[in-house]
Predict the structure.
Amino acid sequence: MKNAKQTRRAETKTRRGGPTRAAVIGPYLSAGGRAEALSRSPEARLDEAVGLAKAIDLDVPRTFQVNLSTITPATYLGKGKVEEVAREIEDEEIGLVIMDCALSPVQQRNLERAFETKVIDRTGLILEIFGQRARTREGALQVELAHLAYQKSRLVRSWTHLERQRGGFGFLGGPGETQIETDRRLIQERMTRIERELDQVKRTRGLHRKSRRDVPFPTVALVGYTNAGKSTLFNALTKAEVRAENLLFATLDPTLRALELPHGGRAILSDTVGFIADLPTTLVSAFRATLEEVTSADLILHVRDISHVESDVQGEDVAKVLTELGIDPNDSARLMEVWNKVDLVDRERRIAVMNAAHRVPADRRPVVISAVTGEGLPELLERIEARLATERTQIALTVDPGDGKGLAWLYKNAEVLGRRDQTDGSVFAEVQVAPERAEKLYRRFPNARAPQSYRARRRV
């Protein structure tokens, strides 16, 4: 039951009619604490947490950076700091407190009592953002699954709307079942149903990937820290119009488009959800079906915001998630770094970035670009084409006059880079195929050979 302060605060928020007023608290362990010192600065972490809050249109009039030497089991923060923050929250008429850490259910409940307002932790905030960003049925299911897994451990008699409590014998959840047991069972039943639906999504995606392999076009996936500019780059490369805003997690649902390569080749480009530090394991698990677009890609572009002060640390965070997905972040044959937003750095910093890129060995050298201005995009496309070509066989051949079935077979089983109709009715074509398909093509067209033009390009 709400006390007088909570009622007054709710009335104030309703009267104003604006966005919820939120306070963001960054409780970070100092180097002398029980945990290791964070590789990124507390200020940068707090700024990121504020950005997450603003991504769902929260008004953040107050922030608190709290340096901890140890974590208090009951409230995470020390007693004195809790009382100090509680006074300021009341004065500012705050309706939501965001803790930039992972809270236990007990800590969350105790802080809500002390602050007399709703409290969520970092995982809860990310789940809220994902809930707003999901646009497809699949995305909504994945968010709900992650949210249910998160809530299952912190039940407060709030999930009975999922299903009415059933009567009957004990094994059917009869009158002897406690409320929390009922809630937990209902959540688990819902999670099981969602997992079945996502399994179907996974099978459907698998069929789609098989169809793309059968075409066959190579696949390229964009990964990176949230707000690194992946969607802007996706739009610039494919002329698509996916949502691209200066917001954390602006993209949630995966998008695929055709990518035209410089010498007539094509690939499929996939834009995926951005990664973030301390990405909840429940989200990684729930979004595994979506992230399989990354794990199955022929080439992965790791897009980094080179203008960000924490760019190196963000790169390490992405590498951790890739490792969790079973992808070696040091696999130079499959991963390529793309340093984006070079247009946002000053001249001195630009020179340093360019020098740093050129010091990297050629097989791992990043491509420096600006997805907004287009700087570096031609080089990026050339590098993508060259990298994909090392994994695919290019062949030149002539289709005899009247061999319509042969020409149709060629378009179905290979990627036609170019064709030239000859005066005698034959068709000269340059194609590329996956290595496992090359032998089949050679059997179908005995005159097939490696094109001289391709070998010349490779030498360059």
